[in-house]
Design brief:
With 551 residues, the chain is of the alpha+beta class. The chain contains 17 helices and 19 strands. The strands form 6 sheets. A 5-stranded antiparallel sheet has the order 14-13-19-18-17, sandwiched between helices. Strands 4-5-6-7 form a 4-stranded antiparallel sheet. A hairpin with a 6-residue loop joins β6 and β7. α7 runs antiparallel to α17 and α9 packs across α16. The longest helix has 16 residues. The protein is globular, with a radius of gyration of 28 Å. The protein starts with a strand and ends with a helix.
């Protein structure tokens, strides 16, 4: 609970006391049953509770009374008008006692159904510092299930739309860390206003490096997440501190191209990495705010995973890029039938051509041979971890999910070979896999130099042999340049030494597959994901091409 709030048990009933105000039998009864038609006694009316949807009159009256009580600082009375006074009471009290908001005026707007938007105007006062504060939020009026009273459905977002968890609170005071002026590798400023996708990234950089970047904290109203490792979010600055400077590996030109490329889609992400170093040159998401899916997402990567599978088969000598390899319309393994797109087949094609045309069955047909060389360990999980660094603890400078390829057998293993089933990746992981294929060795991706905090980078156990690395790159080049390559069209505008791999991941309950595309051009690798957009070359491909062309 927040400061100023105490919990006790009186007569077998929980009582919440906030600054001397008791959320006692009446209030808690409201929270459990949906309220009472009686007055403060904690007893229920014997009359039958009202049922059915809340009426426009009830919506207007309840929202008006709730907002008026909140604005007046009467948190106890406002809490009584919600369906959860135990949670809402302390939160509403915190608006004054922790956020230090006074002189509030809260104005409701026109209701849409049972939902009422409203505007909060207040003054935040911290010592001699004062500043106006304005924002909008919304509430929904519901009917109590037992007593039938109209009540505000309590959620933290009623208090402020940025309060997305119960553990979070709004506070005003000296910021936990100083502000950070993040710059790209050439010293150009990086701001969320110019590069919207960097908003969540910059918040994390401030949280991690604000104390060591040389700045001094100011006085702010901020969201305290109440969770270790989650950055605070500034809502209002009352007194500016001094910014410290933090150099990142971002390239502003590549970042601008990435931002533009993902904006075409409702749910898309892209990451660009320099293969020779592991430096992250761009990270972009659509939507730009909130969850950094490019670094933290967990999705099946589809046929882009065949880069890792091909490396496994090449290392074991089970295939050669220039030798024939079976590609029938379908292949069965352990009771699981897996086919090619539209049932295509290739007669007498090399493994390199099967890779370039994304033939699923050419890979599935080799599982038995891998099993013979590995026993019960099919080798794909070890290949991903030992060569490509997947599943190691990457220390990029911000939070990241570092990929997952669990040990599997049977049909689940077959799905993994083509990037389905239990394989989980994000664009950061796939860009890194492509960078490893290009350079022949895993270089842990990073956004801030290792010297900034002396953290230890992840290291893969081994590199690709020169022969395997050459074949892998050549197959990716065919995919991007040969007439039959699935990525040739998408990569047509990209110059230099280039290679690619397309992917489409079939997701249960989703009509259209997710679109994946990963590629390299000279010393830049990029990978993109577009949710529910179909073939990799159609949606994710142009995103990657746009990013590579900016490198």
């Amino acid at each position: 609970m927040r400061s100023g709030v105490k919990v006790a048990v009186v007569g077998g009933v929980f009582v919440v006391v906030a600054s001397g105000v008791g959320y006692g039998g009446y209030n808690l009864w409201n929270g459990i049953t949906g309220g009472s038609s009686g007055t403060g006694s904690g007893t229920r009316s014997d009359s039958a509770p009202k049922s059915g949807p809340v009426t426009p009159e009830e919506i207007a009256a309840t929202s008006k009374d709730f907002l008026a009580a909140w604005a007046a600082g009467e948190s106890d009375r406002a809490a009584q008008l919600t369906d959860d006074p135990v949670e809402s009471g302390p939160a509403l009290l915190g608006f004054r006692e922790q956020a230090l908001a006074v002189d509030a005026t809260i104005t409701p707007g026109a209701a849409t159904g049972a939902t009422v938007p409203f505007t909060v105007k207040a003054t935040v006062k911290h010592g001699a510092l004062t500043k106006p504060w304005q924002y909008t939020s919304q509430l929904t009026v519901v009917r109590g299930a037992t007593t039938g009273r109209p009540l505000v459905a309590w959620k933290p977002t009623v208090l402020h739309p940025a309060l997305t968890s119960k553990s979070a609170s709004i506070r005003t005071g000296v910021a936990k860390t100083g502000e950070v002026e993040a710059v790209d590798r050439a010293g150009r400023p990086l701001t969320a206003a110019t590069y919207p996708s960097l908003g969540p990234v910059l918040d994390q950089l401030r949280e991690r490096y604000g104390a060591t970047a040389g700045g001094k904290p100011g006085v702010e109203t901020y969201i305290d997440p109440g969770v270790e490792g989650v950055p605070a979010r500034t809502l209002l600055t009352l007194a500016k501190g001094e910014k410290g400077k933090l150099r990142t590996t971002i390239d502003a030109d590549v970042q601008a191209a990435a931002e533009k490329a993902v904006q075409r889609y409702g749910s898309a992400s892209v990451v660009a990495i320099q293969p020779s170093t592991g430096a992250v040159r761009a990270v972009a998401n659509s939507p730009a705010k909130g969850f950094n899916a490019a670094f933290e997402g967990k999705k099946m990567p589809g046929s882009t995973m065949k880069i890792v599978t091909a490396a496994l088969l090449l290392e074991k000598g089970l295939v050669n890029a220039d030798r024939p390899s079976e590609c029938p319309p379908t292949a069965m393994y352990n009771g699981r039938t897996i086919g090619n797109l539209n049932g295509f087949s290739l007669n007498g094609a090399t493994f390199g051509e099967s890779f370039a045309r994304s033939c699923n069955t050419a890979f599935i047909k080799k599982i038995d041979d891998v099993e013979k060389t590995e026993g019960d360990d099919f080798g794909l999980a070890r290949e991903a971890r030992q060569v490509f660094g997947i599943g190691l603890e990457w220390k990029t400078g911000i939070r990241s999910f570092d990929g997952s390829v669990p040990e599997e057998t049977g049909g689940a293993a077959a799905e993994q070979y083509i990037g389905q089933g239990t394989v989980q990746m994000n664009p950061l992981n796939m860009a890194s896999i492509t960078a490893t294929a290009k350079s022949g060795a895993f270089k842990q991706p990073y956004l801030v130099a290792q010297s900034a905090d002396d953290r230890t980078f992840a290291r893969a156990e081994r590199t690709l042999s020169p022969g395997v690395a050459r074949q892998l790159r050549d197959m990716m080049r065919r995919t991007a340049t040969a007439g039959y390559g699935t990525a040739t069209g998408a990569m047509a505008s990209v110059g230099g030494d280039k290679g690619a791999k397309t992917g489409s991941a079939e997701v249960g309950g989703q009509e259209t597959s997710d679109s994946w595309f990963t590629a390299f051009a000279d010393d830049l690798a990029a990978a993109a994901f577009v949710e529910g957009a179909g073939h990799g070359a159609t949606a994710a491909g142009p995103i990657v091409a746009g990013v590579l062309n900016a490198g």
